[in-house]
Design goal:
It is built from nine helices and nine strands. The protein has 256 residues and is an alpha/beta fold. It is globular and about 50 Å long.
Length: 256
């Protein structure tokens, strides 16, 4: 099956996992592919957790395939240049990347992450605020049908989601970072914030990492979700609903 067909199949399958009007959350575990032990533990979390894999991770291909076999959404965790670092990042794109280089790197990185149905940004607090570079990136993403983009929102000045939508790419954005503070009590508090946002807005997206503390908290919290009338779904289910509700009125031209 082609990557685009697989992406469409996963999105359609997961879209039916929640009832209309139900509070839904999606949780993406970032930075996957670097540590096999923690990666395996992350894949053992209960429910439809989603996973974003670094293209340069030594264990990315193996773990991404396992995630796919478990019916979980797999994303490319695309490295992008942050404010705190100058020049190129490993496997990433930066302000010195040309339009051609950005599209070539995107293709290489997608090939390194088997079964990817979407992309989110790793770091990127500098480049995600630049409309030109983000337009080039989204143009490359739009050529690969049925792939979506999740803006990790590493800066409040990001334009990534807007540029995705203008390029006709289905998109959503992170609402909560679960483990910016790795203390278990802080992670639990952020999880409760995620649930509150979902109940208020109907859905919410969280990003976390395969830290031991995070995995322990998620093991406990996810096991009790059903009793709280909150549904954990794959990120593709939320993105598909967003795409159905918000149709882009125009596409970025590829002629400039």
């Amino acid at each position: 099956m082609s990557r685009s067909a697989a992406g469409a199949a996963v999105a359609l399958a997961l879209a039916g996992t929640a009832l209309a009007g139900e509070a839904r959350i999606a949780i993406i575990i970032d930075d996957m592919g670097q540590h096999p032990g923690l990666g395996q533990r992350a894949l053992a979390l209960p429910g439809r957790v989603s996973y974003a894999f670094l293209p340069t991770g030594a264990h990315t291909a193996e773990l991404a395939k396992r995630a796919h076999r478990r019916g979980r959404d797999v994303l490319l965790h695309q490295p992008m240049q942050p404010v705190s670092r100058s020049g190129a990042v490993a496997g990433g794109i930066g302000l010195d990347s040309t339009r051609r280089e950005i599209r070539r790197r995107l293709g290489q990185n997608l090939a390194a992450v088997p079964h990817a149905v979407g992309v989110n940004n790793h770091q990127g607090s500098l480049i995600t605020r630049h409309p030109g570079h983000m337009s080039w990136f989204m143009e490359g993403l739009s050529e690969r049908r049925n792939l979506f983009f999740i803006d990790s929102r590493t800066t409040p000045r990001t334009v990534a989601k807007r540029m995705a939508q203008e390029a006709g790419v289905a998109a959503a954005e992170r609402d909560v970072f679960l483990d910016h503070d790795r203390e278990p009590a802080a992670i639990a508090a952020q999880f409760e914030r995620l649930v509150r946002i979902a109940r208020r807005d109907g859905q919410a997206v969280a990003i976390a990492h395969p830290h031991p503390e995070t995995l322990r908290v998620l093991d406990r919290r996810l096991a009790g979700l059903a009793r709280r009338d909150v549904r954990l779904v794959g990120i593709s289910a939320l993105v598909q609903r967003n795409a159905e509700e918000v149709k882009p009125s125009w596409h970025v031209s590829s002629s400039h």
